[in-house]
Design a protein that fits this description.
heterodimer, A: alpha+beta, four-stranded mixed sheet, four-stranded antiparallel sheet, B: about 325 residues, globular
Amino acid sequence: MDFSWGERNEAFRREVRVFLAEHYPPDLEETVYRTGVSHDDGFVRALAERGWVAPGWAREGHRVLDRFQQHILKTEMTRVDAPTYALETTIMVARVIDKAGSDRLKADVLPRVLRGEAMIALGMTEPDAGSDVAAITTRARRDGDDWIVDGQKMFTTNAHITDFVFLLVRTSHDKPRHKGLTTFLLPMDLPGIETQAVHTLSGERTNIVFLSGVQLEDRWRIGEIDGGWSALMLALQDEHSAAFSPHLSRLIEEVEAWAANGHDDRRPLDDPDTRVRIARWATALEVGELLEARTVWMESFGRVPIAEGPMSKLFSTEAIVRAAEDLTELVGPDALRSKLDPSAVQDGRIEHALRFSLGTTIYAGTSEIQRTIIAQHACGLPR
Amino acid sequence: VDLALSDEQSALVASIGDLLGTHSSPAGVRNAEETGFDGGLWASLREFGIIEMGVDEAVGGWGATLLDLCLTAEQIGAALAAVPVVEVQCAARLLSRLPEPASLLEAVLAGDCLVTLAVRPPTAGVLSLVPAAGVADRVIAYDGQRLISVGVDDENRTRVQNLASAPLADVRLDGLTELAIGTTAAKAFERALDEWLTLTAAALTGAATSAHRMTCEYATVRRTWDAAIGSYQGVAHPLADSATAIDGARLLVHKAAMALEHDDSRARELAAMAFAFATETARDATYQAVHLHGGVGFTLEHDAQLYYRRARGWARVWGEPRAAYRRAADARYGAA
């Protein structure tokens, strides 16, 4: 048994940190926060130059990072809130296109994606369908060789800047709900598409996309007609590898820095209660990192962490929510000072952690969905 | 990162499992409730080499790693086995690391002297609620300055009936021997305590695992309103939380054991964290075991209470999770 990442991987971690210090300066961090948009063309191009767009994707002329280094790259970028969300959704969809798309679609889209030049947002959820994705009602009906799409897509984060949206629609109404779905890659410059901003507690901007009579050529279809469910499952396979513990790591780091400074000639870190509270969340961080490392380790030799991935996501995100609540209470009234307010404690990162935490137990599968998967696959409980 | 057990470790787990399967059972645990000690099982474990395995080859042991001992302790905990394996191993390891390993160690390895570790210092000349002291011949303790060894017999020992049905006793410090003083004494004791915290965390993880498994099995067969209770989210979701925490506790225990084994700078911090987290995890999982079995889980006839009581007792002879978080903070930030 070995819990260390090894010298080679630690050297890689340093390389990533140097890259981030150069390409993710404070003014870009501020722009990302002010706009609520986790994407920056220049940053993604710099990643592409390093070969760090889709680092695990084997392709010609590309040095593939092993599973551990992919994790380290993701961990380090997550820890500093680097603007990678549009890229993550892009690669998730690109992998689906690679596995299920037509040759023409692959040739049209994948080279641009892998150069960091084309971005794709997710268009699955709707106002009346969240975790139960098969409940969607946005429909596409045949019109000669084309399709006419009508409906609404919710939480299409970055859709206002991406080139495409990965669109899940209902194409048959007389089949069981899972069997009448089809996926498309929707070019966002078509007529009939309207994108409206939706602002969230974390400051992140997301969108609602209205689709009315959008005429879509069949060449944008991904996979079989009415075969959208299996395309969707391909997309969700990537979700196991999400790294949430770095957010907790950053929060603890900021609170420790706050506690180590003198306030009214005494340090919070000398107070027994403060020490116990921070140590409790530092312990949760250890556990979160270990559960995360376990999924990466399993994937490194081809095992799918069916219950272990949900355990990792559930534990870290629930810990973030509780830690942010407890630690903002610990810091006291000063933790109310908002990020970017000149008087904010630790540049407002502690306040922001509280706002940010609330989304983590919702997106990428709510805690309730994760617990249900764990109950069935790890505890052997009936559906 | 490699989380797999070696072939030797897998073999160790299998052989301890066989031994416990043959010599320990819920009925055996219940038979030992009065004294907290299963003499037959202890004899079998002695014969297996449970004490020798924990000390270095140079002093007559097998030189097992602390991770190996964690794997053993987890199974002892899972079986709720009424045997003082963790205490004796920790005390023997402490003795073996002293500058002059006392002749006491020979007696311990020969099985002539059952030695245990007092995990808290004495107050007013008394070591209170010393684990395994109800069946021990000798206690190793640290009084703040000296590492001491105290013979135990019915003159200076008062056995205490307790929540965990553990062989706890209050021991009066009569006729003590000094083993070490100053930093040597402090270092030896703190290291032994790190190991005790880690191994107790492993035992707690084992107890949590068994209680959780038993509860999940019940939730799949017990039906209410025409459905297995485990299909209701109010039952399933707490069990999913415990499954997650148990896996996390095990990983953290193993990481702490490896850190201690390699004298890693974070070893003390990780050992305290493992104890705190495993204590909380076992507390929750054994509470669920009682609660989710419903009324029957509250009866003495049912085994759930056996896990519930031990999960609390094994940890609380040293302290609450907050005490362990304090210890972790002291290691992480320096003493306050």
